[in-house]
Design a protein that fits this description.
single chain; 88 residues; alpha+beta; four-stranded antiparallel sheet; disordered N terminus
Length: 88
Amino acid sequence: MVAATGQEGTVLVTLSEREDAEELAEQLRDQGYEPCTVHRDMLAGEDDAEDVDWVIEVTTGPHGGPATFDEPHLAMLAQDYGGFAAAQ
């Protein structure tokens, strides 16, 4: 399990499929979000490695400010892939 950095202003976009997470991370990078790192993350209470989700960690928005300013937009994109977004 890789823990998120927890940096203030970070939004974690959580998806169940690795391919979806990598595809969305690429789209976000193209839109100017960074760093858009993808890693696996086991949510609290999960004990089955197959249930581990894929997380895109987004710190900075295309405007240069914290990604939390764009949380509603990131949440909409995550929903398109059956996932969710949450600010840290």
